[in-house]
DNA sequence: ACGCTTATTGATAATGATTGTCAAAACCAT
DNA sequence: ATGGTTTTGACAATCATTATCAATAAGCGT
């Protein structure tokens, strides 16, 4: 049976209090900074579990780091992520789901899954960076 | 100025001769097996360059490994990848392109790019794995 | 063909994220 | 409260990737 520990709860809360995706390392640092003595391996395990149960979403950053996020939407969904500040918008993509299934089936593929993420600059960062460039 | 070496050409040819996405490590092993004394660091550099110039496509595998492929299509496209054998089908995704642009704009995001990959089991691997499971 | 300049190579070390180990600590059903 | 079982965490191990840097070899002008 699965047991409840303050460590798991701490990870869950830290993730809830984070706006956007965050890495295991960064979340561990954040927890340490708040005085928590939680171990790094435990943070990795907790995040992995949360991702498995669907309580958190995970994705690979462009440079190959695993990032996690506590999502408000429970079902399957995708993300629009600001590559500057990390701000994230959850998006529905019914047409993409249908497209992925269809294209996989058309080529005889089974057990299809898909990675669909949109990266861009949020409105705020767009103006910020435009100002800097001047 | 950029120089031409047999190492770069060897990597290009090895990639051309590969069906599907492959990692730098695997490509290096493959080259070694064919008797090439090329260094691992050089393979990494060559693949990085090919990806930069657009001669090769790269993506992050679900477990965070960078994979490369010499693509037949030159323009923007996406991939349907067998997670067992690496076999890859290039796919058009016009509706997904449009969707990504629209959803980004709707939320005020600019400079939108997207990561769209479909992973599954190709027809061959589907029957292979079904047999093994028995 | 011959040097010369300098980009490139490759053996190796370094880095950094992630996972494995395993004894000690914590849960929780009884 | 007790005991069996799960979880933790310090640490080592792994694995991909990048940094070093002396040795090599393009390619240009001669
Ligand atoms: Mn989400
Ligand atoms: Mn392609
Ligand atoms: Zn932003
Ligand atoms: Zn396959």
UniProtKB/TrEMBL annotation, chains A, B:
Main location class: cytoplasm
- Signal peptide residues are none
Q: Which UniProt keywords apply?
A: Cytoplasm, DNA-binding, Metal-binding, Repressor, Transcription, Transcription regulation, Zinc
Domain of life, per lineage: Bacteria
* Keyword hit for Transcription: yes
Where is this protein found?
Answer: Cytoplasm
Instruction: State the InterPro entries in the record.
Output: FUR, Fur_C, WH-like_DNA-bd_sf, WH_DNA-bd_sf
Cell wall biogenesis/degradation is among the record's keywords: no
Q: What family does this belong to?
A: Belongs to the Fur family.
According to the record's subunit comment, the protein's assembly and interactions are: Homodimer.
- Name assigned to this protein: Transcriptional repressor
Gene source species: Agromyces allii
Upper classification of the organism: Bacteria, Bacillati, Actinomycetota, Actinomycetes, Micrococcales
